[in-house]
Write a structure and sequence with these properties.
Elements lengths: L42 H8 L26 H30 L9 H53 L2 H5 L8 H19 L5 H16 L1
Helix pairs in contact: 1-5, 2-3, 5-6
């Protein structure tokens, strides 16, 4: 994705110039800027776009004061659930295997020479560590189950929004009254804002990050 070297904004692929400062976009930021928090704040672009658009049914969705600000990338709930599940398996495996090995050493089934003091210390330290792994493993399983339920609900909501968008967010509606002489990146901001605000109005319970992801997907489905 292209970036503005001056404003540190990330833009959609295909956009060449920053709508805020007018700088030419680059493929990636310098290394010293990697840790800078990136925000999506197309206020100037939106104001410029509104000076061109006609008054029509979509105007009430274009108000700049309700624009979304992207502060961090949205992480899909199903992906998070999968990560917790994998982490739980690893923690339980290491914890249980380690605890079993300690017991076998203590019973003399596995011969491993240690002084009495060393054996006691190993049991305390390693036993505590393996027990912690097991506790964390079960905690991860609990988190995975909660996220799995949320991921199912999120999937259903995603399908519901997509079905709704097919009837309400058509290309004709989103491009009505546009000035074709306006730069494509400015038109993108206006279309994206309309999509985002309409999702927010019709599905107010939706998480902001999830709405941004859905707005991007719907825009791509319509215009790409």
């Amino acid at each position: 994705m292209p970036w503005c070297p001056q404003c540190k904004y990330e833009y959609k692929a295909g956009i060449k110039v920053c709508a805020d400062c007018g700088c030419e976009l680059v493929d990636e930021l310098p290394k010293e800027s990697d840790k800078v928090e990136m925000e999506f704040d197309p206020q100037a672009a939106m104001q410029f776009y509104e000076s061109y658009k006609d008054e029509d049914a979509s105007d009430r969705y274009m108000e700049a004061e309700s624009k979304p600000v992207r502060k961090k990338a949205y992480v899909d709930t199903a992906q998070r659930a999968a990560e917790y599940k994998a982490g739980a398996g690893t923690l339980l495996f290491v914890g249980i295997i380690g605890a079993v090995l300690l017991v076998l050493v203590d019973l003399g089934i596995i011969h491993f020479y240690m002084s009495p003091g060393g054996k006691y210390l190993i049991n305390i330290v390693m036993g505590g560590m393996f027990l912690l792994f097991i506790i964390l493993g079960f905690a991860s399983i609990k988190s995975y189950k909660k996220l799995a339920v949320k991921a199912t609900q999120e999937k259903e909501l995603r399908e519901k929004i997509i079905e709704w968008s097919k009837d309400n967010l058509t290309k004709e509606f989103l491009t009505k009254g546009e000035d074709t002489s306006v730069d494509e990146e400015i038109l993108y901001f206006g279309r994206y804002q309309t999509i985002y605000n309409m999702i927010k109005e019709n599905f107010p319970e939706t998480d902001d990050g999830f709405m941004e992801q859905m707005a991007e997907k719907i825009y791509s489905d319509i215009f790409e």
